[in-house]
Specification:
By secondary structure, the protein is of the alpha/beta class. It has helices spanning 36-48, 118-122, 136-139, 142-156, 160-178, 185-223, 246-252, 254-260, 281-284, 287-307, 325-337, 352-356, and strands at 2-9, 19-20, 25-29, 67-75, 93-100, 105-110, 113-115, 127-130, 232-237, 271-276, 279-280, 313-316, 341-346, 364-370, 373-376. Helix 4 crosses helix 6 and helix 5 (160-178) crosses helix 6.
């Protein structure tokens, strides 16, 4: 699926006028503060249910308003490239999200019907963001890498979202029991049993998707000129030592968890461990190498979904400031080969031939952004 129509209401400074996009490449340029990133942010809401820039919904509502709305129309993507611009061609899906920040109420709609689960909305539009903050996947803590992996697992394994939500609820109940002030062993054994069962299911899905990702990553580094990746090892850590059962580990660390007041072992501690010659990549790779590694990891994710017949919508925000010309071209060419939908923002007027070469430019649409309004060129 690809996002071919977008309309917002009271979302930052964006104009309420509907915009039609290409299912392939969309190039957006304009001055700082013109609204380029806000457009990507609105698209992100349809695929992630949240902002990739800020943690609070309130921050994206137009000043003086209490509610914002984002509507998106999807078609079949690049398989429908010849007819995407035709109004008569229709839309495959219509997605909508509205948030009242005063009442703290969110309304989700898919094809005209209200849905309760965010996963019902997000499954239609796999959105992958590449912005300056994404490089924390390597340099940041395990939570960033866990989030990176879970995004792929969600789109690969249909049952993952439900199991993840159940595991979150059981973890919360278990933590509450640990914080009660007295050690209720009988109740903890009940939560341990449920937690261990869900953890095994969750970790199995994560491991399966990670294995697909690792194979794609290995193929990718064989195709591109990154000799410094030789000796790089990617490993999935489920959050506990699998040589022991999780209930045994929980029991043997009961006093430790009781003192701290929360669960210390299990899928909430999962990580993708990145090591080079036995040492963490964050300690051995240069900043430039870390950026390139994250880009390769993002492409490998796209390869996994592409292999399953899913089109990923990539949001590339201000990559000119983070990547040199060669890496930008490599990224654009690889995403083109995957059949991805891509949105690229920049301050300068884009030069498509610098990304793909003269005579080999794919189908694209270009927009100038000013005061939240898109004007197609």
């Amino acid at each position: 699926m690809a996002l071919v129509r977008l309309q917002t209401e009271d979302f930052r400074n964006l104009s309420p006028d509907p915009v039609t996009f290409s299912p392939s490449f969309n190039l957006l340029y304009g001055a700082n503060g013109s609204g380029k990133t806000s457009i990507l942010e609105a698209i992100g809401y349809l695929g992630l249910g949240r902002s990739f820039r800020v943690s609070r919904h309130k921050a994206v509502v137009r000043h003086g308003q209490t509610r914002f709305t984002v509507f998106g129309g999807l078609d079949r993507g690049n398989s429908d490239a010849e007819g995407w611009h035709s109004e008569s061609a229709g839309l495959s899906h219509r997605l909508g999200i509205a948030r009242d920040v005063t009442l703290k109420e969110t309304v989700l709609r898919v094809d005209g019907e209200n849905v309760r689960s965010l996963s019902r909305l997000a499954k239609h539009l796999p959105v992958s963001v590449i912005d300056p903050g994404v490089f924390d996947i390597v340099a940041g803590g395990p939570g960033k890498r866990r989030q990176f992996l879970d995004w792929a697992v969600f789109h690969v394994e249909p049952s993952f979202a439900s199991i993840w939500q159940q595991c979150q609820r059981v973890t919360s109940q278990r933590n509450q029991t640990l914080r009660n002030g007295r050690l209720d062993e009988s109740l903890l054994r009940v939560w341990d049993s449920q937690y261990a069962q869900l953890s095994e299911q969750l970790s199995e899905h994560r491991q399966d998707t990670f294995d697909q990702f690792a194979r794609a990553f290995e193929r990718l580094v064989d195709e591109v000129d990154v000799p410094w990746t030789r000796g790089l090892k990617l490993e999935f850590f489920p959050g506990w030592d699998r040589s022991q059962s999780l209930p045994e580990i929980l029991m043997s660390h009961r006093e430790q968890e009781f003192k701290i007041g929360h669960t210390l072992y299990g899928p909430n501690r999962a990580d993708i461990r990145l090591k080079f010659q036995g040492r963490p990549v964050a300690e051995t790779f240069s900043r430039g190498q870390q950026k390139t590694l994250v880009i390769l990891m993002k492409i490998a994710q796209g390869m996994v979904l592409s292999g399953l017949g899913r089109q990923v919508t990539f949001l590339l925000d201000d990559i000119n400031a983070e990547l040199d010309m060669g890496h930008r071209a490599m990224l654009a060419q690889k995403l083109r080969s995957l059949g991805s939908q891509v949105f690229i923002t920049s301050i300068e007027h884009p030069a498509p031939e610098s990304l793909w070469g003269m005579g080999d430019v794919p189908e694209y649409r270009m927009f100038h952004v000013e005061h939240g309004k898109l004007t197609e060129e």
